[in-house]
Amino acid sequence: MINFKRADHIHICVPPNRLEEARLFYTNIIGLQPIERPDVFSSAGYWFKVADIELHIGVEEQHPSSIRHTAFEVTDVVTARRHLENNHVEIVEEPLIPGRERFAFIDPFGNRMELLQML
Q: What was the pLDDT predicted at 3?
């Protein structure tokens, strides 16, 4: 058995020519705080703080869409959704799960992110 302590980080990818656009999206629209990324990596990327975990953004050629996603619990899912809609971010409806209010969004680079609030 493996006893997990917590999620440490989530890694998503963007096309190489859109990395700077990704940095701006995740800082200016999503509101994440950039953190220092170690210089040991040969490829470009950015790291951000998301509550008590990290979001790592690297570069990779685009792949077809998938059901793969990252889910983040938020304190007010309605306000989060309104903020994304006001910034013209693509919203994806999710099936109802008892005890959770949730939706997903697609970032400008094809990454699917779910936001949820426990009821």
A: 78
Number of Cα atoms under 13 Å in the Cβ half of residue 17: 1
Residues facing residue 11 across a β-bridge: 56
Please tell me the total count of domains within the chain. 1
Q: Is the CB of residue 59 less than 8 Å from the CB of residue 45? A: yes
Structural domain includes residue 1: no
Contact predicate 43/61, CB 8 Å = no
Could you tell me the two tokens for 81?
């959704």
Q: What is the pTM of this model?
A: 0.84
pLDDT at 76 over 80: yes
CATH of the domain at 111: 3.10.180.10
- Residue 3 falls inside a structural domain: no
